[in-house]
Amino acid sequence: MSTPKSTLASAFAGIKAAQSPEAGSDPRRKSAQEAPHLVAKPPAAAGKSAKSTNPDFEPVKIYIRKDTRKAAARLWEDRDGGDFSELVEHLLSEYLGT
Predict the structure, then answer these.
(1) Between 12 and 60, whose confidence is greater?
(2) What are the sequence ranges of the domains in the chain?
């Protein structure tokens, strides 16, 4: 079964029109400046620091059983209010005696 080229061309005409620079003139489309309430913003994480940009920190991948990590992270958050990386940092510091 073959589809005529004119049918395919008309099917994709709307996509091409939407990608064209004139698409901004469509009254149904609003830019982020015109409708800032429509721009999705990630929720701010409570208690998050900028460890990812701090040169004293580095990401480390480790394997821990899910149930162990969940239980430890919940207990740490309930008692001390810190995140899981702070718990690991605390335990490693104690292990090293610092």
Answers:
(1) 60
(2) 49-98
